[in-house]
Amino acid sequence: MALVEATTERIVEAEPERVYDALADYAGTRGRLLPGQFSEYEVREGGKGAGTVVHWKLQATSKRVRDCLFDVTAPTPGQLVETDRNSTLVTTWTVTPAGEGRSKVVTATTWQGASGVGGFFERTFAPKGLGRIYDAVLASLAVEVEQK
């Protein structure tokens, strides 16, 4: 099994603290950012940053649905890490300054991929598909934090 990684980034016209706070607000903002590939979104513990436990289903393809239950940590300032209890999936969100009133947001998702032919296709196509999904999340985030 090989490590598969999908990374997406975006410059957002908002201060890093504002962007981070929106991402860390699992009880409010975060659920509004998710495109149609996400369903059954539910905060099970906490709701703000580290210590949150959040559930959703992610339909990555027409046939592939992941049932995810994430533990959220905040190992460094400006960073949130979502670790799935049900798989090897880990998503790291990093917010850094990108000039005055701007932020760079990077989301990096990794997991242990399948082996064999299926693994080849997963390593080839899954990062692009997941990148498109998280690009939509980042676009929604930009709309959320830039308009206020």
How would you spell out the order of helices and strands?
A: EHHEEEEEEH
Give the overall pLDDT as a whole number: 88
C-alpha Rg, in Å?
15 Å
Helix count? 3
Strand pairing plus helix content: what structural class? alpha+beta
Q: What percent strand?
A: 35-45%
The largest beta-sheet arranges its strands as 1-7-6-5-4-3-2
- The residue ranges in which pLDDT falls below 50 over 5 or more consecutive positions are none
Distance between the termini: 44 Å
Largest beta-sheet characterization: 7 strands, antiparallel
Silhouette = globular
The share of residues in helices is 25-40%
Number of DSSP strand runs? 7
Describe this protein's structure.
The chain has helices at 16-24, 29-33, 116-146, and strands at residues 3-12, 38-45, 53-59, 65-73, 79-84, 90-97, 103-112. Strand 4 (65-73) and strand 5 (79-84) form a beta hairpin. A seven-stranded antiparallel beta sheet has the order 1-7-6-5-4-3-2, covered by helices on one side. The chain is an alpha+beta fold and 148 residues long. It is built from three helices and seven strands; from the N terminus they run βααββββββα. Helix 1 (16-24) crosses helix 3 (116-146).
Short précis:
The protein is of the alpha+beta class and 148 residues long. The protein has helices at residues 16-24, 29-33, 116-146; strands at 3-12, 38-45, 53-59, 65-73, 79-84, 90-97, 103-112.
